[in-house]
Amino acid sequence: PNVSAPAQFRADKYIDSTTVTHIPSQAVAGRIVTISSTGADSLSGLASTRLFLDGTEVWSCSFPSSPSGICQYTPGISPGPGLHTYLASVRDAAGNERNSTGSFVALSPPVVSARHDPGCPSSGDRVAVIATATPAAPATIRYVEVYVDNSLSSNCTGAGPGPVSCSSPSRPYSVGNHTYFGRAVDSNSINDS
Fold first, then answer.
1. Among 9, 27, 44, 149, which residue's CB has the most CB atoms within a 10 Å radius?
2. 45 torsion bin: left (phi>0), alpha (psi -120 to 50), beta (else)
3. Rounded distance between C-alpha atoms, residue 73 and residue 92, angstroms
């Protein structure tokens, strides 16, 4: 009888590994957060990864039978405040699927406003710039800075849950336009200007 040559096959029942992470580690509401997943499959190779945020697919990547791959949501997301969950669903070329999950809490930055006093200064008037920072509960303001013409003019330490104000020294400025802004850092080390 005719007999075929011996052959072998591999049964692929699982994906070797998957991970999913977010960057930065401390998410801030309204600022970009990137979700990234890695996967590896030494037998049949990876086929694809799908990334989900709060139950909605936001990105996918294809890997033509590659033994490993990285899928990163390159546009990133600008989450609202609160808890967010994400999931990476990795599929290999044999049809096996493995999920990895993670979550983050997006904290709200402090609200910062700045004004000058007097409101309509004349040549020779002494002008002060006042910045006021209000934290998002339960945070407190650590400090407020006032910048005038892109230079630090004043730094004030904050305390408590309420608004914290900081004023530059009152002084005359040269005739012409001047720029100013306030910057605050809260107890979560989140800053805003």
1. 27
2. left
3. 19
- Strands of the sheet containing 97-106, edge to edge, are 56-66, 46-53, 82-92, 97-106
Q: In terms of Cα–Cα distance, which of 64, 60, 59, 61 is closest to 46?
A: 64
Distance CA 142, CA 160 (A): 9
Cα 133–Cα 107–Cα 189 angle in degrees, nearest 5:
60
How many Cα atoms within 13 Å fall on the side-chain side of residue 109? 16
**Locate tokens 């008037």: which residue?**
125
Contact 22, 76 (CB under 8 A): no
Residue among 86, 79, 84 at smallest CA distance from 109: 79
CA gap 51, 55 in Å, rounded? 9
pTM of the model: 0.72
State residue 187's pLDDT score: 86
**Dihedral pair phi/psi, residue 28, rounded to 5°:** -125, 130
Q: 48-91 pLDDT, tens per residue? A: 999 999 999 999 999 887 899 999 998 889 999 999 999 999 99
Residue with tokens 């899928």: 71
- The string of pLDDT tens digits covering residues 18-60 is 999 999 988 999 999 999 999 898 888 899 999 999 999 999 9
